[in-house]
Amino acid sequence: MGTVSKNFSRSEFACKCGCGFDAVDPRLIAGLQALRDLADRPITINSACRCETHNKHVGGASRSYHKQGKAADIVIAGMKPAQMAALAEKIPQFQKGAVIVYNKNGFIHVDVRGKKYREIRN
C-alpha cells in the first residue's frame, strides 16, 4: 500500500507547496507507522516536510523541525487531540521527541528532535 512503510507513501510527507522536498527522517516514518498500528485507524498527515518558503508562508517557527523532515502535523481518524497525544506518548520515537497538542485546530504535532518536549496549545 505505502511506499515508505506499510501505510504511508512518500508523497504524504512532501512539502505542500509542490517544490518536491520530501527528505523525511526514517525515525519519523517508523514512529508514525507504529502510531498507526497502535491506533488501528488511518492517520492523515496535514504537514510534514516544509521548504523554507512554505514554512514562512504557513507561519512556521524559524527553527521548525518540519524543515528538517523530522516533524509531522497529524490527525487520527475519529480521535480528539488529547486522545491522539496519549497514544503518541506510547511510541518510543515520540517519547524522545515532541508531542504538541493543538486543541483549537484539532491536530497534534509529533517530531523526532531527540529531546523530550510537550506542550498544549488551545
Give the radius of gyration: 13 Å
Number of helices: 5
Uncertain segments? none
SSE ordering: HHEHEHHEEE
Percent strand: 15-25%
Strand order of the largest sheet: 1-2-4-3-5
Q: Average the pLDDT over all residues and give the rounded result.
A: 97
Biggest sheet features: 5 strands, mixed
Helix content: 25-40%
Q: Which overall shape is indicated by the principal axes computed on the Cα atoms? A: globular
* Helix and strand composition category: alpha+beta
Distance between the termini: 35 Å
Number of strands: 5
Give structural notes:
The chain has 122 residues and is an alpha+beta fold. The protein has 5 helices and 5 strands; from the N terminus they run H-H-E-H-E-H-H-E-E-E. A hairpin with a 4-residue loop joins strand 3 and strand 4. The chain is globular. The mean pLDDT is 97.
Summary, kept brief:
The chain has 122 residues and is α+β, with helices and mostly antiparallel strands. It has helices at residues 10-13, 26-39, 52-57, 81-88, 92-95; strands at 43-47, 71-76, 98-102, 107-111, 117-121. It is 30% helix and 21% strand.
